Amino acid sequence: RERKLLLVTYHTAARKNELWRLQWEEVDFDGDMIGLWTRKRRSGNDEFDLIPMSKAFRTLMAEWRLASGGSGFVFDDAFDDLKDPNNRWLKRACDEVGVRRFGFHGIRHLSASIAVHNGANLLEVQQLLRHKSVATTQGYVHRVARTTGAVDALDAALSKQSGERKGNRHGLFGKAAGS
User: Fold this and answer.
1) Helix, strand, coil % (nearest 5) of the chain?
2) Confidence grade of residue 177 (pLDDT, cut at 50, 70, 90)
3) Sign for the pseudo-dihedral over CA of 157, 102, 36, 5
């Protein structure tokens, strides 16, 4: 469950409250788009934004939808304990693997930084983050030093996971419902 939540956050750069509101009907598999509702606008009104899904992310979401039954909320009742406003589970996970603690908003910054570092332009990242101003987006992009190998390590970890799970019908997201 935690892995699913973190991967969706990473691929969509969604805000935490947007994730909790995401419904399967807002995932357009035919158009390779995912829709997110946000209140993070000057007016305070809900706005619906569509962002593209990569082919790999689309495949992951399709596998998960099949395994979960694919109706209602993407993060349904099975995820209720992860909806802790203090992110205690995420803090524990960071401590367990020995990384500096981060929150959901930090994943937005990470996604933006990795996207730019790997060739996306600022306007594309602005679309992903769904900012009205490119100046806001600039504040999200941080230097990702190629010498750290962190980006390559992320890819290697996902590839390793994927390789270990070949033949496992559950795919990269792990076990079916209840995992």
Assistant:
1) 55, 10, 35
2) very low
3) positive
SS3 state of residue 85: coil
What is the DSSP-derived secondary structure letter of residue 114?
H
Per-residue pLDDT, 179: 46
Instruction: State CA 78 to chain mean position distance.
Output: 18
Find the radius of gyration of the CA atoms of the chain.
16
Tokens found for residue 20: 């909790």
The crossing angle, in degrees rounded to 10, of helices 88-97 and 2-12 is 100
Q: Candidates 3.50.20.10, 3.20.20.370, 1.10.443.10, 1.10.10.10; correct CATH number of 2-172?
A: 1.10.443.10
- Please tell me the pTM assigned to this model: 0.75
Sequence spans of domains, the chain = 2-172
